[in-house]
């Protein structure tokens, strides 16, 4: 009787399977090391903060402020909940209405779409800061809004004022055209439909400063 080979079909497949399994295991990447550095996000500035609240400093309406915010906190929530700057309104909280608009280094920006730590070391102006240094605590633009009846419920007003202030800063006080004003407030929604009054207020404030 012929002697059977020492290698059987079953033995061959079992051997291949084991070899594949071993190869698979040895090519897997080792898991990242445990520890704070592996679980913390990096900011755009290359700094690593969090995951808990981290110190934050910036200039708010001309004054240096120091607070704490987790890496995921929005500028809007930090202003309203930590710094008591509630003039900035939270309406959609997703960048579509403009009620939360603030100036960051002079440029209008939706604070609900801005991470608080992204304004570290920068200048933020909210509606509370627009009237600073003006008689009666209101800028000419704010006075014009009152005189021209440019608000009803007022929820859009802080954001409108911020956008229009930025426009008047850009024009250097000269009166903008209607199209320019419409363009400037294109990211601000007014559910009460006060747009014609807002445009009239901006035109009347032009020349008197933002
Ligand atoms: S609350 Fe920020 S855009 Fe609406
Ligand atoms: S005044 Fe009510 S949303 Fe503009």
What does this structure look like?
The structure is a single chain. With 210 residues, the protein is an alpha+beta fold. The protein has two domains: 52-127, Roll (Ubiquitin-like (UB roll)), CATH 3.10.20; 130-205, [2Fe-2S]-binding domain (DNA polymerase, domain 1, Orthogonal Bundle). Helix content is 34%, strand content 12%. The chain has helices at residues 9-27, 75-82, 127-130, 140-147, 157-171, 178-184, 195-205; strands at 54-60, 63-69, 101-104, 107-110, 123-125. The chain has a five-stranded mixed β-sheet with strand order 2-1-5-3-4, with helices on both faces. The longest helix is centred in the N-terminal third of the chain and has 19 residues, at 9-27. It is elongated. Bound molecules: FE2/S2 (inorganic) cluster (FES) (2 copies).
């Amino acid at each position: 009787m012929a002697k059977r080979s020492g290698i059987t079909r079953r033995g061959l497949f079992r051997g291949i399977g084991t070899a594949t399994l071993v190869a698979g295991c040895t090519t897997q990447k080792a898991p990242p090391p445990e520890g704070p550095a592996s679980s913390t996000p990096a900011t755009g500035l290359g700094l690593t903060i969090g995951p808990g609240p981290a110190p934050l400093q910036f200039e708010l309406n001309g004054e240096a402020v120091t607070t704490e915010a987790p890496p995921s906190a929005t500028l809007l929530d930090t202003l309203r909940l930590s710094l008591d700057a509630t003039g900035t309104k939270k309406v959609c909280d997703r960048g579509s209405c403009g009620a939360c608009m603030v100036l960051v280094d002079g440029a209008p920006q939706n604070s609900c779409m801005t991470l608080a730590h992204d304004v570290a070391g920068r200048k933020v102006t909210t509606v509370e800061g627009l009237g600073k240094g003006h008689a009666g605590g209101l800028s000419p633009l704010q006075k014009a809004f009152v005189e021209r009846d440019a608000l009803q419920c007022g929820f859009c007003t802080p954001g409108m004022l911020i956008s229009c202030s930025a426009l008047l800063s850009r024009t250097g006080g000269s009166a903008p055209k209607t199209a320019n004003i419409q363009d400037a407030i294109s990211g601000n929604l007014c559910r009460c439909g006060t747009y014609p009054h807002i445009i009239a207020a901006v035109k009347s404030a032009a020349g008197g400063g933002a």
